[in-house]
Amino acid sequence: MGDGLQHGVDVVTQVVETRPAVLLAAVLALLTVLWTVSWRWTRTVVTIAHEGGHALAAMAAGRGLTGIRLHPDTSGVTVSTGARRGPGLVFTFLGGYPAPSLLGLGGAVLVAADEARLMLWIALALLVACLIQIRNVFGALAVVATGVLVAGVAGWATPRVQDGFAAALCWFLLFGGLRAVRELQRGRRRGRRDGSDADMLAGLTHVAGGIWAALFWLVAGVAVITAAWVLLFR
């Protein structure tokens, strides 16, 4: 046990010495997600990713996309047209909660490959694509504000700042994806079930909403673990 503890200490020490910026980005992102005040102000970024996931899934399933609306309470809605049942609609509802985690993981792979600037430009392109589908003023302002920040860092910041910002954004999406699923589960326990993605999926598939929520937990958890390995230990 002593050897195992020493090995763990050695690993942590090595991470602190070799990747302090990535580790600091993780700590700052985690604190932002855990602190209720900062989470209330930044959660809309996760909502943008969530609704973007719905939109992308809808288009991939061949459904028509009517638009996206983001609200000041950090909720959002994506409206698509097509069959009212079937695999296309299931895929559309399935695309929301995993989206922030998968985007965070994809970004982490680019950051680990020293492509932080590319990752930021890709993020900006996705924000522009999302903006085209926004159908309300608050949603447009939220996406534009996020895009301006990302564009400013990608276009004018130093490489070191770009690396730190990109890593922090990845960690924020990863941890934010976990908290969003936790909030979904908490809402279901309190009886708010009719409109949640998990319960809409339950109605479409006859698979219990708790199973879908567990799947969202699994995706978010695996994404965090995989990204941590890629960013810190690879």
Secondary structure layout plus pairing:
Blueprint: H1 2-18, H2 20-34, H3 36-60, E1 64-70, E2 76-81, H4 87-94, H5 98-112, H6 116-133, H7 137-156, H8 159-189, H9 197-205, H10 209-233
Antiparallel strand pairs: 1-2
Helix pairs in contact: 2-3, 2-8, 3-4, 3-5, 3-8, 4-9, 5-6, 5-8, 5-10, 6-7, 6-8, 8-10, 9-10
What is the strand content? 5-15%
* Largest beta sheet: strand ordering: 1-2
C-alpha end-to-end distance = 25 Å
Query: Helix/strand-derived class?
Result: mainly alpha
Radius of gyration, in angstroms, nearest whole number: 19 Å
Low-confidence runs: none
Order of helices and strands: HHHEEHHHHHHH
Total count of strands: 2
- What's the mean pLDDT score? 91
Q: Report the major sheet.
A: 2 strands, antiparallel
* Share of residues in helices: over 70%
Q: What sort of overall outline do the alpha carbons produce when their principal axes are compared?
A: globular
Number of helices: 10
How would you explain this protein's 3D organization?
There is one protein chain. The protein has 234 residues and is mainly α. Helices cover 78% and strands 6% of the residues. The protein is built from 10 helices and 2 strands; from the N terminus they run αααββααααααα. The chain has a two-stranded antiparallel sheet with strand order 1-2. Strand 1 (64-70) and strand 2 form a beta hairpin. Helix 2 (20-34) packs across helix 3. The protein is globular, with a radius of gyration of 19 Å. It starts with a helix and ends with a helix.
